[in-house]
Amino acid sequence: AAGGGWRCCRGVDGNALRWCITGALCASFLGLGMSIAVLGPTFPNLAANVRKNVSDIYYIFVGRSLGYLGGSVVGGVLFDCMNASLLLALSMLATTAGLYGIPWCKEALLLTVLMSVIGGSMGILDTGGNVLALNTWGSEVGPHIQALHFSFAAGAFLAPILAKMALGGYESEELPEAEKTNQSVLKSVPTASAASPTPAPKDHHEDFLWSYIIIGTYILLISIFFFVFYAKGSSAQDKAKASGQKGKLAKHHWTLIGLLFVFFLFYVGAEVTYGSYVFTYAMVFAEMTESEAAALNSVFWGAFATCRGLAIFGAAFLYPGTMILMSLLSSAASSSALAFFAHYRISLWVGTAVYGASMATIFPSGISWIEQYTVVEGKSAALFVVGAALGEMCIPAVVGYLQGRFHHIPVVMYTAFATSVITVLLFPVMYKLANAPQDDDSKEVSDTETCRALLSNSRLTEDEEDEEDVRDWNDADFEVIEMNDKLKNSPTERYRKIPEDSPAEISLQPHLDNVLGDSPVVVEGSPGRQNGNVDWEKS
């Protein structure tokens, strides 16, 4: 009983530890979202701090994006060979160091280097956080990974507010694409609003500095929890759990990972592209006022954040595949309305809201879905994140280039429709590959069925032979018993029955007497026959 109580307490402690890990991961992704989004409202201040125009330092986005890609790849490799909690804690320390150093950076090149360091550390955190959540909860990860990505969206929402408070209400121009992103990377090519050379006044330097200090301190505090988890060895247990699932690899594991890489590339690219250019589209093509265009942009991101929060509860009773299918169908319908009926105001507003809501759950649901069919390790998660980052970098840049070449075509709407069609076509292919039977499993099943069939046939043959032997013995015993009954009758009774018997029976009786009397071979057949012979002799 004491042992059972100890195991129960240990189970309770393990479950509490899993919830603590989830809470720390959500807090870290909140800081991750703030670290990403704070660059937008403070971008003019950074330009003034390095004595450059806003249009001259766009390459810091490229530096951070490249650092993020490199961090995702390196983090995926390191996560498979070292403690996850320690790796996440160290990456958060690197993010803190970069955030602390940015306000005092006076050189554009040094600022780009710091941005690359921050991007690399955030790539490690993004990759490792998803895998650690999978290893911690396994098949129950759905609501938790939705909460993880909702925390990122909440951080991206809070960062501009925090920056505005730190700047004391100073109205600085923001990068539209810096406000919100699905993953953890900003697009590398700034939009027109970012190119306007409006450096911030120098007397706001200290105010702008505090927004980075606050976010960096918050991330530093969260990193302490991961050092505590490392001391408790929780990640080692998760690694052991993950290593125990090695045999769960799907038949087409790397094909699935590659297709999901492409899937996330188009999905994230479409989301960031629409969020970045819908403001411009509303003013140029829909002829809206600036306030109306800003409201339309807010509707998109508001629906996105709201639906991502609701998905935490929806994932508790809906399968990830169901959530993906619902999102893909909604995005296809809304993008069709936006591409072909956006000239109607109601279609533009409703389509934007539905499109934002449909894009909210695809990325976390995709990770939960693939985990049901194969093992998601560090390298696999790194490919997911790299695909999302490439889509976030490349597709908005391509759309911006095409929109500049074809001024009268709403490229952003046609891009939303095309990417929706691509993702809708990719998902059934991935589903088919994920459910392909394993060759070894089918061979083992066929071998087992063959063995069972052979065993059942052999048992059936033996049983049939035994039944035939028993039948023969019973027939022989029954014949002897009949003959014994007839022989036990007295001669007088036999002769009385002669008139009643048929001639065949009369002629057969002496023959039977002769056979029983002259054939010792028949007597040796069975014990019943021996007893019958003894009775005949006594009579």
UniProtKB/TrEMBL annotation:
Region feature (Disordered): 456-475, 491-539
GO CC terms, sorted: membrane
Protein localization: Membrane
Biased composition (Acidic residues): 462-475
Regions of compositional bias (Basic and acidic residues) in chain numbering: 491-500
Its membrane topology: Multi-pass membrane protein
The organism's place on the tree of life at top rank: Eukaryota
Transmembrane annotation, as ranges: 16-37, 57-79, 86-102, 108-135, 147-167, 209-231, 252-279, 324-342, 348-370, 382-402, 408-429
Gene3D superfamilies per the UniProt record, alphabetical: MFS general substrate transporter like domains (1.20.1250.20)
Matching InterPro entries: MFS_trans_sf
Entry keyword set: Membrane, Transmembrane, Transmembrane helix
Family of this protein: Belongs to the major facilitator superfamily.
Protein's UniProt name: MFS4B protein
